[in-house]
Amino acid sequence: GDTFHVGLTFHPPLPPEPLERLTAWLKPRWEEAQRAWQNRSELRAQAVLAASMAEPEGILLITSSAETEAQIRPLLDGLPPLRTAPPVMSSLKQALNPPPRLVLLHLPQSGLEERRRYRTLVEALPGCPLVLLAAPQGTVLAQEIGAEGKAFSISWNPSLGAFLKRLAVGLLKRHSGSVP
Q1: Is the CB of residue 104 less than 8 Å from the CB of residue 60?
Q2: At what angle do helices 16-53 and 112-124 cross, to 10 degrees?
Q3: The pLDDT value given to residue 74
Q4: Distance (Å, rounded) from C-alpha 150 to C-alpha 76?
Q5: What is the pLDDT of residue 18?
């Protein structure tokens, strides 16, 4: 099935105290990863249901960076309204009603915790175009998600503003037939 296992071996073996601390640190993360994996199909079904219930509108920017939002908002002037949400599942669920016509996902980092969190967020998105805006520390994750065929990926910096706007216009025209 969808079960996988990861093992670690320490040479020389860890003493009991550090091993107990490591086990205590890993256990809740392992349980959360298992729950997230089991909830993937449920999240996808919820996203599809939400998308089918309301007419898509606007562009959704998922970011925790006020600076990134301030850079992107004026670039998309003249396009459908931009709304934002932090990269947290509860906020994303609210932001997906009504579903967006286009999603911009800012990836500031590529650590293990971020990989799991952002992959879960991507799974919850409805079937609209997705553009990954990767900061220098987030390019690996953006490439991984993009390679799965789920998104367009660009290394984000403000000098790419004109390109981002053209990409957004093209995706909106391609997937919904119009820009406004």
Answers
A1: yes
A2: 20
A3: 93
A4: 22
A5: 87
Residue 113, classed as helix, strand or coil, is helix
Q: Choose among 41, 125, 43: nearest CA to 85.
A: 125
For residues 36-62, one letter each, b for 16 or more C-beta atoms within 10 angstroms of the residue's C-beta and e for the rest, the string is: bbeeeeebeeebeebbeeeebebbbbb
For the chain, give percent helix, strand, coil, nearest 5: 55, 15, 30
Report the chain's C-alpha Rg in angstroms.
19
Q: Provide the token pair at 174.
A: 């391609």
Q: How far out from the chain centre does Cα 86 lie? A: 10
pLDDT digits (tens, 9 = 90+) for 19-50: 888 888 888 888 887 777 777 777 777 766 66
* Interatomic CA distance for residues 72 and 70, integer angstroms: 6
Q: Contact at 8 Å (CB) between 41 and 127?
A: no
Whole-number Cα distances in Å, 17 to 21, 27, 88: 6, 16, 34
Q: Which residue matches tokens 């919904």? A: 176
Q: Tell me, what's the pLDDT at 61?
A: 93
b/e map 80-99, b = 16+ CB within 10 Å? bebebbebeeeebeebbebb
Confidence (pTM): 0.67
Based on DSSP, count helices (H) and strands (E) in the chain, helices before strands: 6, 5
